């Protein structure tokens, strides 16, 4: 029995840290946090999100008053309707001019004039079409939607608030991805040297284990005042989207 215990002690002393699993303290953080705004100026007409709400991908969170944007879209459409017939007529005139020129019934100068008039009419139509496309995009962007399943962290937007994006695009809603979190830990240099991006590690939160993947391994030590340098490691893991894990919560990362 003494021989067996001695053998185990020698193995444990020589196997190194890679052979013995260890846990390090970690702090939870959001895997993805975004501040949503809009490139469109206007007045906030509706707010459909509150901090703590769970929202689905594509869900409308803030709407600007659409009336000025719809009016701009109608004006742009009218411009397209006005310029298209002129372009079509210039195109027909150009074809007639080419036929006459081929039959030597029209001078080179007159053909060039028809080509110039067609180019101008075509440019006017394309400009009008671009303005219509932009007006439609502005109308689409006037609704701020969740880009993914998320928790609402902040909602600075208020009904009646004027949004002036040419001055500063201030966030209207702040979201955090639902169903994925980060565990941030700091490890010794020898451990950091054994880890690489994509390696599988377990994250433990409140006694429950989650399969995680190393996202980053830092190259500079954290400034924690310790004598032995430690390097930052982040591990991303998925969880049930209904679980309300919070940034700043405590966790542990199980090292190999």
- Based on helices, strands and strand pairing, what is the structural class? alpha+beta
* Cα radius of gyration in angstroms: 32 Å
CATH architecture of the largest domain: Beta Barrel
CATH class of the largest domain: Mainly Beta
Largest sheet: 6 strands, antiparallel, barrel
Number of helices: 4
DSSP strand (E) fraction? 25-35%
User: What would the average pLDDT be, to the nearest integer?
Assistant: 89
Give the overall shape: elongated
Counting DSSP E segments of at least 2 residues, the number of strands comes to: 14
Sequence stretches where pLDDT stays below 50 over 5 or more residues: 1-20
Tally of distinct domains: 3
Distance between the termini: 29 Å
> How do the helices and strands follow one another from N- to C-terminus?
HEEEEEHHEEEEEHEEEE
- Helical content (DSSP H or I, runs of 4+): 25-40%
CATH superfamily of the largest domain: Efflux pump adaptor protein, beta barrel domain
Strand order of the largest sheet: 1-10-13-12-11-14
What would the CATH topology of the largest domain be? Elongation Factor Tu (Ef-tu), domain 3
What does this structure look like?
This protein has four helices and 14 strands. The protein has 256 residues and is an alpha+beta fold. It has three domains: 15-31 and 179-255, Beta Barrel (Elongation Factor Tu (Ef-tu), domain 3), CATH 2.40.30.170; 43-65 and 145-176, RNA polymerase II/Efflux pump adaptor protein, barrel-sandwich hybrid domain (OB fold (Dihydrolipoamide Acetyltransferase, E2P)), CATH 2.40.50.100; 67-141, Helix Hairpins (Orthogonal Bundle), CATH 1.10.287. The strands form three sheets. Strands 1-10-13-12-11-14 form a six-stranded antiparallel beta barrel. Helix 2 (67-102) runs antiparallel to helix 3 (108-141). The two termini are 29 Å apart.
């Amino acid at each position: 029995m003494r021989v067996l215990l001695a053998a185990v002690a020698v193995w444990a002393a020589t196997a190194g840290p890679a052979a013995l699993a260890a846990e390090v303290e970690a702090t939870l953080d959001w895997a993805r946090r975004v501040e949503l705004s809009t490139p469109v100026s206007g007045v906030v007409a509706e707010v459909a999100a509150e901090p703590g709400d769970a929202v689905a991908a594509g869900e409308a969170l803030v709407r600007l008053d659409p009336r000025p944007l719809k009016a701009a879209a109608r004006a742009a459409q009218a411009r397209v309707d006005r310029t298209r017939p002129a372009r079509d007529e210039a195109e027909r005139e150009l074809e007639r001019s080419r036929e006459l020129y081929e039959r030597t019934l029209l001078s080179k100068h007159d053909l060039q004039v028809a080509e110039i008039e067609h180019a101008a009419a075509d440019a006017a139509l394309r400009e009008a079409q671009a303005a219509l496309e932009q007006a439609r995009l502005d109308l689409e962007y006037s609704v701020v939607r969740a880009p993914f399943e998320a928790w609402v962290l902040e909602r600075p937007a208020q009904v009646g608030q004027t949004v002036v994006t040419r001055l500063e695009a201030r966030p209207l809603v702040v979201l955090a991805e639902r169903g994925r979190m980060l565990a941030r830990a700091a490890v010794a240099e020898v451990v950091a040297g054994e880890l690489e991006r994509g390696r599988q590690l377990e994250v433990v939160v409140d006694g429950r284990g989650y399969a995680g993947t190393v996202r980053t391994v830092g190259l500079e030590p954290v400034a924690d005042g310790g004598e032995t340098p430690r390097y930052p490691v982040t591990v991303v893991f998925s969880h049930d989207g209904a679980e309300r894990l919070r940034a700043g919560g405590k966790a542990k990362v199980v090292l190999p």
